[in-house]
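Researcher: Can you fold this with flavin-adenine dinucleotide in place?
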Amino acid sequence: FTADSYPFLKRDPRYATLNETDIDFFKNVVKSEGGSIVNGLDKSTDPSDLDAFNIDWTNKYRGKTELVIKPKTTQQVSQILKYCNSRKLAVVPQGGNTGLVGGSIPVFDEVVLNLGLMNKIHSFDELSGVLSLDAGVILENADTFLAEKDHMFPLDLGAKGSCQVGGCAATAAGGLRLLRYGSLRGTILGIEAVLPDGTVLDNMVTLRKDNTGLDLKQLFIGSEGYLGIITRLTIICPRRPRSTNVAFFGVPSYENVLKAFSESKSHLTEILSAFELMDNTSQRLVDAHSSTQRPVEDEHPFYVLLETQGSNKDHDEQKLNALIENLIENEIITDGVIAQDESQLRVLWERREGITECLAKAGSGVYKYDVSLPLGVLYDLVNDTKQRLIDLDLLGESSDHPVIDVVGFGHMGDGNLHLNIAVRNYDKRVENALQPWVFEWVASQRGSISAEHGLGLLKKPYVGYSKTPEMIALMKNLKNVFDPNGIMLPYKYV
Ligand code: FAD
């Protein structure tokens, strides 16, 4: 999808067009301390060098930037933004570019400010568990560093090998264990951010309690680069668990999935760290496009991956075994396995974490919806979507049907469903059938149209399904306070 696919989007003439003087300025700023730029105006630059910054992870959105700036320090970010603001050059912050809503790549020719070279871990306090690091640190690298200190990063997700902690903060990513370790809105203690006029906002607090005025860092968490650039953060990290167990169940109905969740919370209480839902269609895709074997023999309508994390192996196993006995006795689950060692544990997680990548291999495209819903109706959205696409003759086995499969999975413990529609090719008929219908469906249940992936370009026109006009007006007023020239993240978010 290039900007041409969105007829309502026009390049805003308020923004300046990049010229050689701008490039010289940026070159000069980053040349010290090992920053760098990729300059598309330079005829000797291979145009494909810009692709990694112009194309998103889903391969759905494509921008046309001619300049990627990779600063090394907060001071450089400040100089760059100040200049862009004075010249009215539009800017897109970019982390690991793994976001799924078209937020991290330009729509037209915005300058990409990529945080990849700001990747230092600054300090870790073993007593408090507070980690201080640059926004560009890859999530997995932060967690590996913490593992050596017997701690863990309080967020984990499938893109951990590429996404950056700053990108995760900017999207308020939820991930696999929010159920246990809470949201980044609670674990991030402090933030350093650069405002569009170059002001550096130093809120690098390491305290758990700080009730002095408005909690401004919260405005940056989940703001997707709309207000400024997160350059550093402090985050409180828990001890690494001494015992981790993973079980994988086959479940005969969604009603029983709900019962299993209720029983799991009751039996496992503080050690329940993940409760992930997968439907059979998602597991058929993983069968087809990964090298892992389905862990339970027969096919079941639903599967659950349940994880416990605790400090005492015997205690945790006792609790898990009691839960499983209960689930089997009451015929809530029909089949299940418990990982016996680290490698089995990894395979069970791959059956869940691999779904997104297997979906990407199913056809040529995937329509993705990431919604929060009350648990009782969470899976109804998948059934209703399937039915709608069948009724409109868009879903079927023949190659005339654009839709291959409708898949539901997600972080059920947090009421978060990922509804994914795999298509043979992106097709306007499918898009029109889904939007705004999916958002209307979600709004009718007072759900959220964006649980954890953000708004980006994809959901900008639909914010009104989750927020009132008064709230949207206040957000726009705040934007004007932070970014009166509107240079940050144009065409997206709200
Ligand atoms: P990008 O994709 O580069 O950027 C995302 C947005 O944040 C953009 O709007 C960008 O402009 C802005 N941004 C980036 N860095 C900064 C910064 N330093 N300051 C200001 N703005 C910035 N998300 C979940 O919540 N839970 C999951 O379980 C989950 N699983 C995923 C699994 C896979 C396989 C993939 C590909 C994605 C998954 N995601 C998940 C999506 C998730 O949003 C991203 O993986 C991650 O949070 C984005 O980090 P990033 O560094 O790649 O950011």
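Model: Folded with flavin-adenine dinucleotide in place. The domain at 363-473 is CATH 3.30.70.2740 (Alpha-Beta Plaits).
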